[in-house]
Each structure stands twice: as C-alpha cells, then as structure tokens.
Amino acid sequence: MKNMNRETAILVTAASAILCACPGLVMCSSSLISMLASIDAPSSEAGIIQGVSAGMLCLGLASVLIPVAVGYFTLRPSRLEEAQILEDTGKPEELDDTIPPAI
Fold first, then answer.
1. pTM of the shown model
2. Considering the domain boundaries, does residue 61 fall inside one?
3. Kindly report the CA angle at 10 between 61 and 3, in degrees rounded to 5?
4. How many of the other CB atoms lie within 10 Å of CB of 60?
C-alpha cells in the first residue's frame, strides 16, 4: 500500500469500520449486557459468565481499534509527501510564521 490515493484510503477505512467496528460494538454491548445479567446467576455460573463476557469485551474493543489503526496508517501523509512539502515551501507545514525564531 505504498502509493494509495486518498479516495482508496477512505474506502478502505470505511470498509474496515463496517466490517470490524460494527460487529465489535455489538460484541461489546452484548458482553456488557451478559455481565449485568450474571449478577442474578448462581455463584458457580456467575464467574464463568463474567469471564466469557470479559473476553468478549476485550475482543470487541480490539476489533473497534482496527479501523482506527487502518485510518491512521492509510490517511497520514507519507514521508515522500512530507519531503515534497518541505522542498516546495522550505519549511515544515506545521510551523506558523508568528512563532519567533530561537536565539
């Protein structure tokens, strides 16, 4: 994925959000519901239910973080683009002209 244009990066991020984040949010919510429902369960079953629910919660949170990582790595400017901006302007894009130079 070296030379990916911005439209492709947005489509990949949207697809990963639909395929990973939506099921991850469903998994998180269902695990929280089952944790709350296990409060009334007998003590021998409550530990098993809460353990499985905690595992589901961790998997759900991990699958929600996948689109965040995909978006970060596909939408950030490459080093070549940063070098081109620096070459064209002579200064990094983030610097503001109102900042005085160091003495």
1. 0.65
2. yes
3. 115
4. 21
Q: How many domains does the chain have?
A: 1
27 CB contacts (<8 Å, ≥6 apart)? 56, 57, 59, 60, 63
Give 6-55 pLDDT, tens digit per residue: 888 889 889 999 999 999 999 999 999 998 888 887 888 888 888 999 99
Per the CB < 8 A criterion, the answer to whether 12 and 74 are in contact is: yes
Q: Considering the domain boundaries, does residue 102 fall inside one?
A: no
- Is residue 67 in a domain? yes
Range of the domain at 67: 6-89
As to burial, measured by CB atoms within 10 angstroms (0-12 exposed, 13-18 middle, 19+ buried), residue 63 is buried
Which residues 6+ apart lie within 8 Å of 57 measured at CB? 27, 28, 31, 32, 35
98 domain residue, yes or no: no
